[in-house]
Structure formats: structure tokens, C-alpha cells
Amino acid sequence: MVVASLLATMAFQAATTPPGGVWQDDYKVDANGNPVKEPHMAGTSIMAHIQRMANGQFMIFNPLAFLASLSIILLLLSELSIKRGRWMWTQMVLMWLAITGQAITYFIALHNISLADTWGMLKDVTDVSVVCWLCLMGVVFMGNVVRLCVVLRKWGYLKKKEKKNSDEDDEDKHEQV
Fold this sequence. Notes:
By secondary structure, the protein is mostly helical. It contains 6 helices and 2 strands. It has 2 domains: 1-113, no CATH class; 118-177. The chain starts with a helix and ends with a helix. The relative contact order is 0.10. The mean pLDDT is 82.
């Protein structure tokens, strides 16, 4: 619950104070009173005006992290997770989504606040981080698949591998004598 609350707080804070900040003034007309080409209003995101693609990505992954975190908190408060394994699995997937959304949001924000001449280094760091993250998620995913197979075998949904045919076993025993 603590981690989910922390992720929700971080996502909320990122939404209310986006990377690059917000405009502090209204800018609709220039000094001569002529309408400007790209007006803005106080309180709107600077990144939304300057880097529309990055802002769009930010507005996808930040709410994903926020809502996944809130969903985890809701499931924990409902106490269903203590009694049922499916709820625990659902919470685990939601936590993956929350952490991944937060990580992507972080890199978008980092890119937005960095100088253009550092973007090459930032891309290298991001690439290595993403590969490491995907490897870690793959290991955790495979561990959960193995655990699921063990549970399914325990419940009788998966059968154990059968050994050699009993006739073949008898022949092997006779050959050894």
C-alpha cells in the first residue's frame, strides 16, 4: 500500500506540475495588439505547446501509473486480496503497469528538461534502462508462469509427465539381469 500510495503521489504531482512547468501569463496578443500565432493561457503546460508529441506520451503514461496505483490501493482496502489468489495476481499486474507507466513518464520528463546536446547520451541511458527493465520483467514473468504451472499441476489441471511405458521398463529390468 505504501508503494502504491507513493506512485500515486508522484503521478499526481507530475500531472499538476508537468515537466517544463506551466505558463505564468496569458499571451493572446503581441505588443501591438495583434493576435499571436500560438497563444497560451496561464496555468497551461509549456510542454503541451512546445513538444506536442512528448506531451501526448506523457499524458498517456502518467494517468496509467496514477490509475493503476489507485486501483491497487482500492483492491488492498477492499481486503479481497488476502483471501483470493486472483486478486493478488491482479494487484501484481496493476503494480507492473503503475511502475512501468511511472518509469516511462520519468524518461519523458527527463528528456523534456534536458538540453538538446545531451539527448544522445540520454537516449543511450534510456535504451540501456529499458533493456534492463524488460529483462527484469521477463524474469519475473517467467517465474510467475512456472508458479502458475505448479499450482495448475497441484489442482490437477496439468498432468505430470509419464515415465517410460511399463512394458519398456520390464524389458529394461530383464536386460539388466
